[in-house]
Specification:
It contains 6 helices and no strands. With about 180 residues, it is mainly alpha-helical. The chain has helices at about 1-5, 20-35, 55-80, 105-125, 125-155, 155-165. Helices cover about 60% and strands about 0% of the residues.
């Protein structure tokens, strides 16, 4: 619900993304969540377990999912009106370097991936691993495309930000900043 409501407050776009790229992304996203959440795909090797079905494993999976969703929402709040589900630059776009963006360049993707990993652990079946791999591949491609767009818009400022932060995993700064 937060995503739908906050999307209305997003700024107008200056650049556009190809409709075909967006359509492929939505297909992959749909396939990912269908794999992850649908019992219809509990067949053959996809239904085999990669972790034991225990309370402890399910609890760890739920905790990882909650942490992932929390990172995602935190990152979305930090982006504010600069957020878009498309790879675009907004009018008066700002390069965000606060919150989780102080440590990684794509924390929304990282949070979603962490949430999917937690759900895969909770499910415990190989279909969860396949869903994670599919989503990871799509987000890595999208993130690289975003980085080209951001580098074009922000030049040296983005290059400096990229040197200081991790791609999908955080890079922490110890000592002075």
């Amino acid at each position: 619900m937060y995503w739908v409501i906050s999307a209305r407050q997003s700024g107008a776009t200056k650049t556009h993304e190809a409709h075909s790229f967006r359509a492929v992304r939505f297909l992959i996203l749909g396939a990912t969540f269908f794999l992850l959440l649908s019992d219809w795909l509990r067949i053959g090797p996809l239904a085999w377990r990669f972790v034991p079905d225990t309370f402890a494993v399910r609890t760890i999976g739920v905790i990882i999912t909650v942490v992932g969703v929390s990172v995602t929402v935190w990152a979305r709040i930090c982006l504010g009106r600069n957020w878009s589900d498309k790879v675009v630059i907004k009018e008066d776009h700002e390069l965000i370097r606060t919150g989780p963006y102080a440590y990684m360049r794509h924390p929304i993707y990282s949070g979603v991936l962490l949430g999917v990993a937690g759900t895969a652990i909770t499910t415990g079946e190989w279909r969860g691993i396949v869903a994670f791999a599919l989503l990871f591949t799509m987000y890595a491609i999208k993130a690289k495309k975003e980085e080209r767009v951001l580098a074009g818009a922000f030049g040296g400022a983005f290059e400096e930000h990229a040197r200081r932060t991790g791609f999908l995993l955080p890079r922490f700064h110890w000592g002075t900043r």
